[in-house]
C-alpha cells in the first residue's frame, strides 16, 4: 500500500510541477489532445530527470534507453492492435481520433508511473528491495 501511495504521490507531484491542477478542476475545459500533450510532457520530464540523475552510470543509461525504445515499440504495437484498421502517426500524434488520443494518453500515463519508480528510489533511498535503484547493485 505504501508503494502505491508513494508512486501516486510522485506522479501527481510531477503533474503539479507542470501547472496542470486547473485541468483537474475543470477537465471539460481541455481537449483530449491537450491531455495527451500534458501526459507526454510528464513522461519526457521524468525520462530526462532519470537520465540526469544517473548520468554517472553509463551501463544503466544504455539499458534504460533501450527499455524506453522497447516501450515505444510496445506502445505502437498496442495502439495498432487496438485500432487495426486505422493508420496512425504516433510519433507526432497528429491526426489521431479522440479515442486514439485517449488510449495513447492512458499508455503514456502508465509509462510515466513506471518511470516514477526510478525517481522515487532516488528521493526515498531504501524504501524497499523491489525499488529498481541501480545504486544498490554497484556503480560502474
Please describe what this structure looks like:
- This protein is 67% helix and 0% strand.
- It contains 5 helices and no strands.
- The protein is globular and about 45 Å long.
- It is mainly alpha-helical.
- α1 crosses α5.
- The model is unreliable at 15-24 and 126-131 (pLDDT under 50).
β content, as a range?
under 5%
Distance between the termini: 33 Å
How would you characterize the largest beta sheet? none
Tell me the Rg in angstroms: 16 Å
Share of helix, binned = 55-70%
Global shape = globular
Low-confidence stretches: 15-24, 126-131
Category by helix and strand content: mainly alpha
Average pLDDT figure: 75
Helix run count:
5
- Kindly state the number of beta strands: 0
Secondary-structure element string = HHHHH
Helix and strand arrangement:
Layout: H1 2-17, H2 21-25, H3 32-53, H4 58-82, H5 98-123
Helix pairs in contact: 1-5, 3-5
Gist?
It is built from five helices and no strands.
Keywords:
140 residues; mainly alpha; 67% helix; globular
